[in-house]
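PROTEIN DATA CARD
Card holder: Ubiquinone/menaquinone biosynthesis C-methylase UbiE
Chain length: 268
Origin: Actinomadura algeriensis
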Amino acid sequence: MTDPLPPTRRNRASLTYKLRYAAQNPDKIRAYLSRMSRDLKFRVASRDHVAYYRSVMRSDTARNPEAAVGSRSHGRWLALGRMQFDYLLEHGLKPDDRMLEIGCGNLRAGWRFIDHLETGNYYGIDISPDILLAAQHTLVRQGLRDKMPHLALVGDLKLRFLPSAHFTVVHAHSVFSHSPLDVIDECLANVGRVLAPGGFFDFTFDRTEGAEHHVLREDFYYRTETLTRLAERHGFTARLMDDWEALPHGQSKIRVTRPEPAEGTAPA
Ligand SMILES: C[S@@+](CC[C@H](N)C(=O)[O-])C[C@H]1O[C@@H](n2cnc3c(N)ncnc32)[C@H](O)[C@@H]1O
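Structure generated from the sequence above:
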């Protein structure tokens, strides 16, 4: 009884999907029920999504920080970080780039960016104090204290405390896959201010070609057009990165940039 639909058309929130999945994976039913009850508890106690997800991260990080950012083993944690790093390197990431990493987690990729960039050129932000403490352990373990990265706790994605036109690369891996649309909208409304001229913002998301849906309040599935249109509404050009699709990663990646000013037009 395999699922007849390809992964990008599955609706993981539908009853049919859940029943089929439970029948195929009886060993996972208990864990799912416990996630459901945690979801209910955190929803009741949280004033908004950020507070909710901060509680999820607290609970997951207490068990295992590497699993909390989505890696089942240390080997996977290393490989997923490497994949993100190699991709940006191939796209020209240079030591003098200034990088903002949104949802930096425990620096799965961040420690490689910090190592590559010039001192002080990495800025990681996250909503979870627990995972930021784990990020400090990663920094120490990798011997990167002298690179003076910034790690900051945030309560929203308005980015008000960051300088204008500063970051040449903004990166959010596996963050919008855990975010409702209003959080993504807030980010896209504000990220343009901190992007340096010619800079870009790469983010991954869980792509569906069917109905948009979410599983609990933890995993969100979007159609590409929803996110590209949202980015365009905030004045960006947005494109799905085909070379990322070829990599062994379940999520898709969109790059947003400011459109080039037409010839002879002064930049605004
Ligand atoms: C799956 S982890 C990925 C971490 C890191 N990007 C990586 O690839 O290892 C998602 C991270 O995003 C953070 N996060 C979730 N929503 C966020 C938001 N609205 N603003 C900033 N960080 C957020 C979580 O706390 C968590 O550390």
